[in-house]
Amino acid sequence: MLGIVRNSSADRAPDKHQLKALLDGFSIEVMPRTAAKIAEFKDLLPTGTRVYIAHIEGTPIEDMVALAKRLHRDGFRVMPHFPARIIKDNSTLEDWIKRYTGDAGVSEALLLAGGVEKPYGIFESSMQLMETGLFKQFGFERLHVAGHPEGNLDIDRDGSTRIVDEALQWKQAYSERTDTEMVIVTQFAFHAGPIISWSERLRTMGMTLPIHVGIAGPAKLQTLLKYAVACGVGPSLKVLQKRAMDVSKLLVPYEPIDVLSDLATYKANNPDSLIENVHFFPLGGIKASANWAVERIE
């Protein structure tokens, strides 16, 4: 495999310049209930940071839009989630889009199927949301879609990647057909190898969409293990399990320095890679992830 980093960054000091280059322009995810605990996002994040708003099942759209409005007012690029399976119909989708564009100045979104097993209505996938034409109609300039470097057994139950690969190829064709700016943002992982291999495989398939790599921010090991199992993280989960067997590390908060250092080195050696940026899942808290990232780009 071309350009894969062979040596773990645990065996060497990370290159600060390479790490900064990868982290510049990072994005982060929040929810209305966690954002309510933050007095001023401007004290945590650089102006212009892209902030995703996760739409968890049961969250009122009014709470989502209120947070989007707050973040937009404070100078951030707001990207709300549109989980297809909790959107009942075209009317609901249009209502949400109008609320975001009209009340909060939003023109970007992350489209995903969502973790609900039984759809609320007519939508099951992000592709169906795109096919409505409503995002284009109401001026959404940028759409992000989900990527799964370690596969997704909820979609490809046979352990292959056939369905997720076909979906990404469809989405790239949509971006070209509609002139929509599109990015793949991935599920979080704990080892660079699977991410790099996956990005190179997409390239051999003819994919050109940039990849923003999902990374779990600093957190207690027990917290990460819980989320990793719940979210279906693949082989890189072994990195956490191995760490959990080391009593000296069990109580020390996990930091994503190894995976990011390896990705930064790979990106520096392969500037044409599809890997473009980093997206933080702040599983250990927004402040912890934001402070950790900002310290490494200053």
Automatic annotation (TrEMBL):
Protein name: Methylenetetrahydrofolate reductase
Keyword Oxidoreductase: yes
Keywords: Oxidoreductase
Keyword Oxidoreductase belongs to the record: yes
GO molecular function: oxidoreductase activity
Domain of life according to the entry: Bacteria
Lineage: Bacteria, Pseudomonadati, Pseudomonadota, Alphaproteobacteria, Hyphomicrobiales
